[in-house]
Every structure is written in C-alpha cells, then in structure tokens.
Amino acid sequence: MDHESSNVIGRLLVGAVSFVLLVTTFGIASERDKAKQPNVIVVMADDMGVGDVSATNPNCKIKTPNLEQMAAEGLTFLDAHTPSSVCTPTRYGLLTGRYNWRSRLARGVLSGTSEHLIPADRPTLGHLMKAAGYHTAMIGKWHLGWDWHKKNGKIDFTKPVTNGPDINGFDQYYGHCGSLDMPPYVWVDTGRITAVPQREEGVTAKEDRYGWYRKGPISPDFVIDDVLPHLFEKSVTYVQEQAKADRAGQPFFLYLALPAPHTPIVPIPPFKDASGLNPYGDFVMQVDHHMGELFAALKENQLDDNTLVFFTSDNGCSPQANIPLLLEKGHDPSAAYRGHKADIYEGGHRVPLIVRWPGHIEKRG
C-alpha cells in the first residue's frame, strides 16, 4: 500500500468503524483467495494516552522502542480517535462498528459482574472475520459483560459462564470480565472457569496509590502482578498454535485487549523504576516490551510477513497515572492536547494508532 492510499485511509473515521473498513479493505476475499489473506491482530491498550508512545509524541519521555520500530515499519495515524473516552463504549464500538450509544449502556462502563452487552445476533468484527474463513480468538480484558451463573444473587463459580465472546464471533477466548481493578478476579477460558475463588483480595488506594484494586473473590491462579505477562504468554501460544493452520491456508484473527496501563498499575522487574518517571511510565515500558515478544513470536513462526497488526488504546490516559507528576517530569501523556480519560476534550479520545504489515504497508520514510 503506497502513501497515497494511506492518506485516503487516514481520512476515514478512525475508531470503531474504521477498523472494520480497514480490515475489509485488506481483503474479505472469495474462497479461492483465502490463502492470500493476512492474519490480523488488533491490540488494544487500556488507558494509554496519545502522548505515551514516541511515534505519536516526539516529546515522549517513556522509552517504547518496539512500538517505535512498529511505526517505522508501518503506518502511524496522527489524528486517531476512539468513539468514547472510557472503556466499555469504545470496545462496543470497535467490535460492532456502531455508535456506542446504540447499546443499552446509557453512561459509564460495565462492572465485573454485568450481564452481556452485545446480543448474539448483533454482527461483530468477530463474525465478519469468521465469515471470511478466519479462526477467531479474544484474549484479555473483555469488559462487555458475560453471564455468570448466579444463585440468590451470588455467583456460583462452579458453573460455566454463558454469553461470553463466543456468542459474538470468537471461536475461543481467554480473559477477565472487566478492568483489572474489578472483581471477580477469575480467568474464564471459553466459558470454563479455570479455578474457583477460595478467598477475597484487594488493595486500597491509601495502601497503594498506583496499584490499588477493589476487594473481591480471587482465584488461586489469578496473580494481579502477573496478569499482563500472562496474557501475552497466552497470545504467543495462540500464535504458535495457529502457525500450522496458517500454512495450510486458514488465517487467524486475534483481538488482544490489554489490561494495562490501567489500574492496578503494577510494573514488575526489570521495568519497575525503569522509566525515571513513576510506576505508570514503567508500566507503559512493560507493555512495549511485551509487544516486542509478540513480534518475535510472529517472526519465529514465519508469520511476520503475512500478519497485519494494529496497536491502539481504548481512550486517553487516566488521572490515576498521576498526571501532575508526569508533567512535572516533562512527560505529557496527552501530548499537549487538553484533557484525559473520561473527558470530551481530545486528551480523552485521541489515541495512538499504528498499523504494520510488512511488504504491504510502505515503511515510514
């Protein structure tokens, strides 16, 4: 794709509808063309501002070398906007291609115990890709509700989960119900709860300004600090599993919804204290590192040249990142745009958007 074509795409509404249009443009092909279709990975960070990536902010103080390389090898959108400045509505818009206010959610976001938001008969990006012959998977933060089995108002964790991403076009999924600060802290693998909670856990904002999360049931296999690397490990495994199918002519679509750098902001070594800013800057660095692992897995499995990768965020940086401190240290997560997450100002909905497809999207000059 040349720069003239990219300029045309750049004039599209970059948000929920544009993802669908972009993927459609790159080939929802006929049966005879399926072998030529690229694999598609959509990575959505959580609460990452447009100023937190060097590709979209020359004055960025956070080192993001893997995303910078992605940008150098692909296309960066400098005027990309989400359909909402908070989590759930953006995700609804991304997957359905509809205005987010057309859902039953009038305001705010869903909780970790909310019922499913997208009806089974509502066409989604997952359905679109399945119809084109793709194997589809969702890994990470769903935050669009699914239906826990409840008895007398309480969740029965011994029973399967219904109406998850599998009714919305995904062959398989592995994820957490809401934001990482929302209980219950339970992994669900395509309707199966991986471990029943045996206790409750939580950290108050007074105990940890950055790493707080609401108290609630937590499974023994759910470790808050390990969630981000765990989800990337699951994603790398999925890529490895799909490599053989790809060589046989069946492409894959992976929707990887990250829990970071949303609260709890819990960077692990060697990223802890690495940014020179605060834990938020460290956590963004960790996200970038794991993106490098994902690209490495694509290369190791000979999938790199035939995989179209999107990287974006659901909304701008949250005040939980301690924006005044970041500004004091010379880093603006909104890249000089006014506002932040939950605002109608551009800092709330202008986000990084980088697209890479070697050999098809022209490298940055």
What would you note in describing this structure?
The protein is α/β, with parallel strands linked by helices and 365 residues long. The chain has a single domain (3-356), classed as Alkaline Phosphatase, subunit A (3-Layer(aba) Sandwich). 26% of the residues lie in helices and 16% in strands. It has nine helices and 13 strands. The protein has helices spanning 3-10, 16-25, 65-72, 87-96, 125-131, 227-247, 279-300, 323-328, 346-349, and strands at residues 39-45, 75-77, 135-141, 150-151, 154-155, 172-176, 188-189, 192-193, 199-203, 213-218, 252-257, 307-313, 353-356. It has a nine-stranded mixed sheet, sandwiched between helices. A two-stranded antiparallel ribbon has the order 4-5. Strand 4 (150-151) and strand 5 (154-155) form a beta hairpin. Helix 2 packs parallel to helix 4 (87-96) and helix 6 packs parallel to helix 7. The longest helix is centred in the last third of the chain and has 22 residues, at 279-300. Mean pLDDT is 91; it is low at 1-18 and 28-32.
